[in-house]
Amino acid sequence: MKKSLVAIAVLSAFSGIASAQSSVSIYGIVDAGIVNERGGVADSVTKLTSGVASASRLGFRGTEDLGGGLSANFVLESGVKIDTGESDVAGSIFNRQAFVGLKNGFGAVTLGRQYTPLYLTVSTVADPFGAGYAGSAKNLFPTAGNNTRTSNTILYTSPNVSGFSGELAYGLGEQAGSNSAGRQFGAAFAYANGPLNVRLAYNNRNSDITAAAGVAAVPAVAASSKDIGRNTLLAANYNFGVAKAFLAYGIDKGTNSAALPNTTNPFGGVKPTASTDSRDFLVGVAVPFGASTILASYIRKDDKTSLNQDADQWALGYTYALSTRTSLYSSYARIKNKNGAGYTVGNNAEVGTGDKAFNLGVRHSF
Description:
The protein is mainly beta. Helices cover 7% and strands 51% of the residues. It contains 2 helices and 17 strands. It is globular. The model is unreliable at 1-19 and 217-223 (pLDDT under 50).
């Protein structure tokens, strides 16, 4: 009798394993548009560009039910240029996202290359343009480089409890001779319930760089020792039905807290300097009517350093949904730079070459 019970238990265990459900899906975005940029030393630039509204990509995501409320998941996502068919980062494969992790009722832990809580706050809550089109908040908000996504990252995402949720991210710098150089820490606390969506994010970035092999480090730990870059951003949107209102305020302090998206000298003269003490303000609106949506925003970059390189951006956009997955779009934005500031009007995939830009394109998701 006991042997029979043991046999039944073993068979039941194997049956449970066999019945575990797994799935893998392919997804992506194909986006291309005509872009005209003006106002920089490059004069008038007209081009066909990939990823104006949303960066074009091809991704794979999968999940496996491990039983007992536990599941495994992964994402592999590659950026592509629709205008040329190339990878959007030469020599890379899954440069956009690449992570694997586990999830249960207590939340999810994922390991790999992932978005920062700061960038998710800008793109999903603060910006009516969703960090795309000419009106992208990325033109003035601090999302350049590692502020968008980080490699070697451990991310914990909490479950949603009555609308409340949170994230904790730690990116290892992985530089020889130092456990702190290049590391990055981020966190977010969010509340989303009904028409209200609020999110508070923090980003802490160590910009130290350790010495190259065979080069004496000065000081002993880092060849280049800088202060910590810190970003704090509070963003909210509220859906009134006839329109959705957006509001955001950010504080940026320290090296690389507000790196310039365009690191060249786009307007000639004295090369602009990235601010190490600035404030960001955004107010915007999205007005849907039928298949159409009008987007508008105003962004202010207030540079608190002695250079006082402020900037203001006005933006207007229009989208028309041909279906749930395909849409047409048009947008225009203009930046007014002050005291030699060097901010340019870009879009989701490019940083731009001038202080004015117009977009016209199509976006399809699958």
